Amino acid sequence: MLLDAASLYFRAFYGVPTTVTAPDGRPINAVRGFLDMSARLVVAHRPDRFVACWDDDWRPAFRTDAVPSYKAHRQAPEGGEEVPDELGPQVPVLIEVLAATGLARVGAPGYEADDVIGTLATRARGPVDIVTGDRDLFQLVDDARGVRVLYTARGGIGDLDLVDEGAVAAKYGVPGKAYADFAVLRGDPSDGLPGVKGVGDKTAAALITAFGSLAGIREAVAHTAVPKAPLTASVLRKLHESAAYLDAAPAVVEVVKDIDMPAVDGDLPRSPPTTTRSPSWPSGTACRTRSPGWARRCSGRATWPLSGGLPHSDHS
């Protein structure tokens, strides 16, 4: 199981009130929520491996060089990603808590969590569940290899949408392998990607259905003298006008699947580790997160999920 960590800790921050605090009064809601969600995922899905994938670079240069508007609207005035004041200090605490609980956290310099997920999912020898609220990762679904997305955006961890190739086709009218090309054409304002002006979901899907891929579409555009649906005169004009964007955008939208990074174990710890509070944790944080900590959801209602052993899932 691969977690899009930032997607989940942002969701945790907004889903758990900031009144959840450490004894010194500092908010710890994102940490608490992230651990609660992790516990629920482990109990419900029984993965044998579990990796929190990290944005070592939330806005990589290779993407902004290609499309300068990529995530530009999310940039803080002083640089870096704009995050709520009460969330920023919790992220390093979460990093230390994950280390203390023995849960793998993996990033790669110069890459986003999406690229780490793409690389680990490609390397995996067995089925993979990807937990995210980001549609960009739909491009990784692969029924033959058992790679699917557990999508949090609609119902959260309690009501995940299971996205496989059939779900992508039913929702968007394109095969899963073509989702990245579809996203290039349609664009995504939340990521600062303009798309082809005037080309929405239906037109993008019709073009991909007719020509198979973005490369196929562009070849057809180059050789079409007499407009014919779906390459109508209007669509042809729009695609010609967006040629520079279409040259650059695939490098932004496509998830990297071959980062040069060490092998990742990611095995779930089979017993709760013994930890001491790090000096950087808010006072009292350790009692909320350590042995048996994250799996108890800080409430004592559940035991360590792997104590006594659990059957392995088909998905890791």
Mind sketching the topology for me?
Elements: E1 2-4, H1 5-15, H2 29-45, E2 51-53, H3 61-66, H4 90-101, E3 104-106, H5 113-123, E4 128-132, E5 147-151, E6 161-163, H6 165-172, H7 179-186, H8 201-211, H9 214-223, H10 233-241, H11 243-248, H12 250-253, H13 285-289
The radius of gyration computed from the alpha-carbon positions, rounded to a whole number of angstroms, is 21 Å
Give the neighbour order of strands across the main sheet. Answer: 3-2-1-4-5-6
Number of helices, where a helix is a run of at least 4 consecutive DSSP H or I residues: 13
Mean pLDDT: 88
What is the chain-wise order of helices and strands?
EHHEHHEHEEEHHHHHHHH
Q: Outline the biggest β-sheet.
A: 6 strands, mixed
Overall spatial form: globular
Helicity level: 25-40%
Structural class: alpha/beta
Strand content range: 5-15%
Q: What ranges have pLDDT less than 50 throughout 5 or more consecutive residues?
A: 283-313
Instruction: Give the end-to-end Cα distance, rounded to a whole number of Å.
Output: 4 Å
Number of strands: 6
